[in-house]
Amino acid sequence: MKTQPQLPELKRVVLIGAGHAHLIAMRDFSLRFLEGAQLTVITHHSYALYSGMVPGIIAGHYSPDEARIDVGAVAKAAGASLCLTEAIGIDLANNRVICRDCSSVSFDLLSINTGSSPSSDVPGVPEHAISIKPFEVFLTRFETVRRTIIESGTSVRIGMVGAGAAGVELLLAIHHRLTREAALAGQGKPRLQFVLFSATSEILPSHPPALRRRIKRLLDERGIEVCTDCYVEAVKPGAVYIAGQGRRAVDVIFWAIQAAPPAWLRDTGLALDDKGFIRVWPTLESVSHPHIFAAGDVASIENHDLPRSGVYAVRQGSFVAANLRRAALGNPLTAYKPQRDALYLVSTGDRHAIGTRNGFALGGGWVWKLKDWIDRRYVRQFPGSDVGRG
Ligand SMILES: Cc1cc2nc3c(=O)[nH]c(=O)nc-3n(C[C@H](O)[C@H](O)[C@H](O)COP(=O)(O)OP(=O)(O)OC[C@H]3O[C@@H](n4cnc5c(N)ncnc54)[C@H](O)[C@@H]3O)c2cc1C
After folding, report:
1. Which of 140, 287, 343, 375 is the most buried (most CB within 10 A)?
2. Which residue has its alpha carbon closest to ligand 1 atom 7?
């Protein structure tokens, strides 16, 4: 009797989250399949909204569709099965991902790319503030606020808590959209007041002084108040409470403070840093569990203090792909070497942008055009994303 040749067992490779890094990794797998593996992607949204274009959506320059990446199409092209659910835990003893819909997904190799969200453990934030993440929820809530403000015609005080790049960029976009629409509706500017709350003595604390100066000037020109050394310690309906200063009336409160990791990671048993991000080696494998990888905002690379930005997450995507390939075949891994500096482009609401690199800053309409071209090209590289063509 003839014996059947033994087929090598396929490794079960599971990706949690379809963030920048995993989208790039899947794109890589679509060009060259992941050999010796069976790939599954767990994501709770079938579309990923590209963060770089979110301020442009708020400002009214893009429709949400123009910034959406079809995760289903990307997964299909990569030969991956799609699980449309949210991961809520990892059972490390049995190598299973636990999902919100009560299912579980077994893995031999796992990669986590779930991003980060503004920390919301300040009292009153979940109930009374509008977090900028998740983006789809933020866009819906902004739309409701926008309509109410424009239709009511009453005076409104709008606050953005968090003066990092995302908070500043979004506040400039909100200001542009609302003041323009209020003017078109025949209502004057003075009825809308804007304030940016910064817990530190400077806005954009982790960005070069040249960018800070330009943004400060713009905020000033547009009549946006900046409240520095204002740590918001509580939010209540119609007000924020500032440490050492007390109550400050604000009608609509947007929340964009520093990035925090998903809370469910705490119970997984993975080694985390003091803020709760997953500690990984430069190979992006967990320092405690070598068959688990993490990339993008959720990862904390040993001996590197990288900014949580899409530029780095995108770059790590190719290393996720390369190292999952190597790990699936039992080959040695390759180490990610972060670039020293990256071009960072901040839009300013009005089809202008400021770009910084190596401490220098340049601004203007042409910088917006460059950003628009880069952002559309990013979205367009994924299958099914014809919407990125402008
Ligand atoms: C308004 C704004 C503008 C920005 N602009 C820029 C910019 O111009 N340039 C730049 O470099 N950076 C920018 N950033 C920062 C950038 O967005 C982040 O650094 C980047 O998104 C991180 O990418 P990531 O790969 O870690 O994950 P993300 O792209 O954040 O994606 C994580 C994905 O995982 C999914 N997910 C989360 N939890 C789960 C779960 N439990 N189960 C399943 N799926 C899950 C989420 O739905 C999401 O789709 C901006 C950020 C904001 C807020």
Report:
1. 375
2. 52
229 lines ligand 1 (CB under 6 A): no
341 phi and psi angles, rounded to 5 deg: -145, 160
Give me the chain's average pLDDT, please.
93
pLDDT of residue 186: 80
- Domain 11-44+85-116+261-339 and domain 119-258, same fold? Reply is yes
pLDDT by residue (tens digit) across 75-108? 999 999 999 999 999 999 999 999 998 789 999 9
Helices (DSSP H) in 224-355: which residue ranges? 310-328
Residue nearest to atom 20 of ligand 1 (CA): 310
d(CA 176, CA 296): 30
In ligand 1, the atom with minimum distance to the C-alpha of 316 is 25
- When pLDDT is averaged across residues 1-24 and rounded to a whole number, the result is 84
Q: 3-state DSSP call for residue 104?
A: strand
Residue 20: both structure tokens together: 């920048």
Specify the CATH superfamily of domain 119-258. FAD/NAD(P)-binding domain (3.50.50.60)
pLDDT band at 268 (very low <50, low <70, confident <90, very high): very high
Residue 390 C-alpha to ligand 1 middle, in angstroms? 23
Cβ(18) – ligand 1 distance below 6 Å: yes
Query: For ligand 1, is residue 21 a contact (CB within 6 Å)?
Result: yes
Q: Does the predicted interface ipTM exceed a cut of 0.95?
A: yes
Q: Per-residue confidence at 5, pLDDT binned at 50, 70, 90?
A: low
Phi, psi of 185, rounded to the nearest 5 degrees: -85, 5
Q: Does domain 11-44+85-116+261-339 have CATH number 3.60.15.10?
A: no
Evaluate whether 314 touches 325 at the Cβ level (below 8 Å): no
- 178: tokens are 């609302």
Nearest protein CA to atom 50 of ligand 1, as residue = 51
327 Cα–ligand 1 center, Å: 25
Could you tell me which residues are beta bridge partners of residue 347? 353
Question: Does ligand 1 lie within 6 Å of residue 192's CB atom?
Answer: no
> pLDDT tens, 341-383?
888 999 999 999 999 998 899 999 999 999 999 999 999 999 9
